Amino acid sequence: MGCAAVSAGILALGFRMAMVRWLCGRLEETAAVARAIGAGDLKRRAPRYDSKELDDLAMAVNRMADGIAAQIRTITEQKTQLETVLNSMREGVLVIDKKCRITAVNRAMRDIFPDAEQAVGRSPLEVILSPELQQACEETVACTAGRQASRSFQIEPMRDKVYDVTMTRLRSVDDASGEDCLGAVAVFHDISPLTRLERVRRDFVANVSHELRTPLTSIKGYAETLLLGMEEEGGNGQGDMPAQGGAASARKNFLEIILKHANHMTKMVNDLLHLARLESGERQFEFRMVNAAEAFSQAYKECLHLAETSGLAVRNLLPAEGVAVHADQTRLVQVFRNLLENAFKYGAPSVLDAGSPGSPGLPGKPGATGEGPRGEVCVYCQERGGDVVFSIKDQGPGIPRADRERVFERFYRVEKHRQKHKAGSSGLGLAIVRHIVEKSRGAIWVESPVEDGHGTIFSFTLPKAPPAHDE
């Protein structure tokens, strides 16, 4: 009886120990699954068990894993959507943390500022050379009472590149006081075109008011003088003949000045109207086969007086047999005329480079009356693929690098303080040339200096005329 009891006790103890080991094994297996899920392995799942309690625990772990996986999928999808939205924006986006360090940038930001490619972890000033931006970032993330949560300002980190920056503070969802700052987001809007338009508008107002006021003042003054002289002559009688001859000469001189300024005003108004019509498309182009050599000759005849006054010789290297291009005859003449006028007005060499007045003339048209040419304007062309490249080269002082991109803007003048003596220019000639060339499916550009720090070459392309049987 005693032996049986002892044997039963031993068997029971062994059974209990086996059960404990089995339970520990199942619990360790479930714990391993939970640890794997916690480590990021969301595909791991606990197995089903015969024991209700263990099975409930395993299913709870599996449901937790399913919930975590679903939340991560949602977060991943939202992150992907946000990245897609940010990368599709034209505006640059910069995200900084509460320590004023960059945490993220979008694709547009990397395109605008190449250094932003490796921007994460750096301060804004290390990427964008703008103290104003750095100061705004520091003030925005400071979360000091009274600081604005959003601000807008403009920066110009590069020449002729202006950005309107909107910066907004980031704060946690449960932050009611607004003092728990997570960082800030800055959005960069490129307003460079608007800034250039505003600059053109200001130049327009300034130039037009100046250009109109000066001739109007002359017209008014000389007209009043003529009127007063006529009144004095009427009150004093005929007077002696020499006095009458002197008065007549003075009146003639005054009238010539009035006519000169009136012509200047008329040219400026006509150029303004012509440019407006080009931009609006009011007048259509009549494209056909045009002999560019004939168009150039016609343009030269129209500005022959200016050529003789400038003292510059013209060397025409266009082929004698002509150059056939697909263009509008009238507009092509205007392109050549405007470029020639520009060369005659600003293309003369400086006093030190021009030589003495009696120096021998250059090949081409004669210079000023009684003097050898002070320099030359050279016109030539070359074929390039399906286009013809025309170039007009002068020997003037050249155009500074900073002004080259703006010479085709309306009313823009290079070194305005040096050009005050150049009369008769509306400031619209090159702008008109650019519009005509671009509407003729061509391109125009300027190269300067050409050699020894002097000279300018204006070049433009036009399509070659198709063979006669293709028209």
From TrEMBL:
Pfam families: HAMP, HATPase_c, HisKA, PAS_4. Its EC number is 2.7.13.3. Keywords: ATP-binding, Kinase, Membrane, Nucleotide-binding, Phosphoprotein, Transferase, Transmembrane, Transmembrane helix, Two-component regulatory system. Gene3D superfamilies: 1.10.287.130, 6.10.340.10, Histidine kinase-like ATPase, C-terminal domain, PAS domain. It is found in: Membrane. PROSITE patterns: HAMP, HIS_KIN. InterPro entries: BphY/WalK/GraS-like, HAMP_dom, HATPase_C_sf, HATPase_dom, His_kinase_dom, HisK_dim/P_dom, HisK_dim/P_sf, PAS. CDD domains: HAMP, HATPase, HisKA, PAS. It comes from the Bacteria. GO terms for biological process: osmosensory signaling via phosphorelay pathway. This is histidine kinase. The lineage of its organism: Bacteria, Pseudomonadati, Thermodesulfobacteriota, Desulfovibrionia, Desulfovibrionales.
